[in-house]
Specification:
Blueprint lengths: L3 H4 L25 E5 L2 E4 H15 L9 H26 L6 H16 L3 H10 L4 H22 L6 H10 L5 E2 L2 E9 L2 H13 L2 H11 L11 E5 L5 H9 L6 E6 L3 E7 L7 E2 L2 H32 L5 E3 L9 H11 L1
Antiparallel strand pairs: 1-2, 1-9, 3-8, 4-5, 4-7, 6-7
Length: about 350
Amino acid sequence: MRSLAKVIIPLLLLGALAAGCGGGGASGLSSQDVAVVGKTHISKTDYDTLLAQAKRSLGKTFPKQGTAEYESIKSKAVTLLVQQAERAERAESEGIKVTDKQVSQRLAQIKKRYFQNSEAKYKKQLKQQHLTDEQVRNDIRAQLIYEAIVNKITKSLKVTDSEVHDYYIAHPELYSKAQTRDVRHILVKNKALALSIYSQLKAGNDKTWCTLAKKYSQDPSSKNACGKLTVSKGQTVPNFDAVAFSEKTKVIHTPVHDPTYGWFVIEPLSIVHPRATTPEKQVASTIKDSLLTQKKNQAITDWFNSLSKSFCGGGKIKYQVGYKPTPDPCAATTSSTTTG
């Protein structure tokens, strides 16, 4: 059965986090607080629960208390809780509300998907993860707030046909294939052998190509195919590319050298197949989806950066002694604001 913590609890403290906020003294903090964000108190109970989840997730790799690694996880745990409080406060100020009914509906979905609607299985998992139903609901509420914020930020974003066309024109390399040509070749390490093979091929036939390629060629991709392969312009070494795309069809070229690979004896077998371009209408939908995703990601990043800056300074966030993240995330925010 999948861990409830992995299903619900966003253990972002195990990875990189967006910038949180800092600053201010400990005034207004109760002895049970880790931090205060605006009017929101973050309790040591919430912090201890999150750190315990990380410890269970990491198991034996969880760092010992007092180490730099432990302090890093501790800082990230506090930062995560501060970020959630920031979002909740901003959501409230912008009229974003998450009801108890919405929380219950999401929890019901989780129970159905992961616990087959079994209350007993759900409670067993709570016990194993040392969680309470209230803690799970609180985390679901935080997730729903995040989703509501993202939806509000991105719901009006659109990509025009003009933007799609401009992107298509600006990135021809993504929607076209290079010129190609069928050739056969034999690669060897020294010039004398290359000249000998060249002479034998000039006097021979298709069977000669097969025999000599199998016997001498250092190219594993073509030696057992009588030296034949299809090459794309610009995708081979320069001297090979020049012969493959400039010489006449069915003419064996004198050996050419490459300092990395050795000597090539090459014979173009077909005309040069022209560059193939995928029509814009075939990729327009994909481009539009990609551009819309980019717009949404940028809008979300900008919004949360703005949120962090608005809470940094002015004593809007206060940390209990010993819980202020290190390094202080607000230092970077203040620096970028000053220099930008």
